[in-house]
Every structure is written in structure tokens, then in C-alpha cells.
Amino acid sequence: MRIGVFICNCGGSLKNIDFGELRERVKRLPDVSYVDLSSSLCLKEGLEGLASAIKSEKLDRVVIAACSPALSAELFREAVAKAGLDPETLSIANIREGCSWAHEGDVTGKAAELIAMAVSRARLLKGIERERFGIARDVLVIGGGEVGMKTALRLSRLGLKVTMVEDGYKSEIKAEPGFRPPEEGRIEILTGASVAEVKGHVGDFRVRIETADGKVERRFGAIVLAGEGGSRRCRSSSGGCRAWPLSVSL
């Protein structure tokens, strides 16, 4: 395995780290075959240099020692991906907020330890296999109050077909403030209904709904719990209706 470690001194602002010594320590770590020191790794030239080194040095894993991942992780992930590596194999050590800025006095030793831990983590990281699959563009909205109706209307205006489950009466639904008739038949309202069972996953839910006329089964790409009352409309004894991908409060 060939691990590359890219260290950034954040424009020379990390005064309490001896980067010359740090670089020599990192070079001696197992499986580390390349160490680079930069002052602007998150800028365009730094990211281009990162991608170029990954290719030229034929690196298998990348460790970034720089600022907090919350600030620049996505930039580094994109650069790693452009260089042909899986971004999930990127390991980051925070030597600025988590080291230099947190202490007074020399912290070269702590920075070296943080990088050593990131290198150890990089050895164990594995890429994620990705695949594409179709998703249902129908949305189930549970709850027919004002929140549910506004949610259904907004989703329908995005071109999505919406089924709204409401255990009240249609006359009450029409009387809710702010409600307008469904546009182009994209909203279906099932009154006196409840969700009995949910199977599947995000993008492909298979839902069994109990209505006054019997049970119906539908396929939805997403489920919205619209308001507090929506959580009471799922009556599955198996517990399969406890978790939903999205709750909305408007």
C-alpha cells in the first residue's frame, strides 16, 4: 500500500508546529511513501497539486493534515475523486483547530500523533461500491391538516404525484384554510384511511393502506410525516412503520 500524506501549514499561521521536524517524523511511518508540505492546500493550486501527486506517485490512500474537516473536507474529497481514488478512502487529521490553535507552546509531537492515527485509519479504509437504481416519483403524505395540504401542493407543483392519507372527512379537508384543489390530478386524497404496513427503502417504499373500501398497496419514493398528528396514522403491529425518512413542519 502506498499512502501519501499532504501537510498544510495554513499560510504559515501555525507557528507552534515545527513542520520540518513533523515532515521527517511522518516519513518514517509504515506504508507512507510520499509526504508533501503546502501552505495553501485548500486553494486551487494546492488542490491541483494534490491530484497531480496522487497520479504521479501512484498513491492508494491519501491523508490530509490541515484544518478542520468541516471547512475543507468536500474540496479534498473532490480532488481525490478527480485523481481516480475513492473519496471514502480519504483520511483527515485536524492539526489546526484540534492542535495548533488549542494549545500554547510547541505541539509538533501532538501533530505527529494525530497524523499517525490518520495514517492508521487510512490503512483500514475501503471504498464504497456505488450503483444506480430507479426511484419512484410518487410521494406519500401522512396527515391532511394545513401542513399536509401545503406539503402536498408544493410537491405537486414540482411535478410529483402525491397521495395524501387523512383519516378525517373530505368536507373537512376542503374547509382547511389555504387549501386549493389539486392541480392536474397530481394529488390523490384518501380519507378515512391509515397506513398499515411499510416495506422497502428510501426511493422504493411499498406501502399498504387501509381505506373504507378495503386495502390498497402503492409504491412511493418518499414518505412525509406532515405534522404531529401524522405519526398516529401508522398501525403496523410488526413495528415497521416507526421510522420515516422525512418530517415536515411548515
Description:
The structure is a single chain. The chain has 250 residues and is an alpha/beta fold. The protein folds into two domains: 3-124, Rossmann fold, CATH 3.40.50; 138-248, FAD/NAD(P)-binding domain, CATH 3.50.50.60. Helices cover 28% and strands 28% of the residues. It is built from six helices and twelve strands. The strands form three sheets. The chain has a five-stranded parallel β-sheet, covered by helices on one side. A four-stranded parallel β-sheet has the order 2-1-3-4, sandwiched between helices. A three-stranded antiparallel β-sheet has the order 8-9-10, with no helix packed on it. Helix 1 runs parallel beside helix 4 (108-124) and helix 2 (44-56) crosses helix 3. Residues 168-179 and 229-250 have low confidence and may be disordered.
Précis, in short:
The chain is 28% helix and 28% strand.
The neighbouring-strand order within the major sheet is: 7-6-5-11-12
Find the count of extended strands (DSSP E, 2+ residues). 12
Low-confidence stretches: 168-179, 229-250
Instruction: Give me the number of helical elements.
Output: 6
Quote the average pLDDT.
Answer: 83
- Structural class call reads alpha/beta
Tally of structural domains:
2
Residue share in β-strands: 25-35%
Notable characteristics:
Rossmann fold; 250 residues; 6 helices; alpha/beta; 5-stranded parallel β-sheet; disordered C terminus; FAD/NAD(P)-binding domain
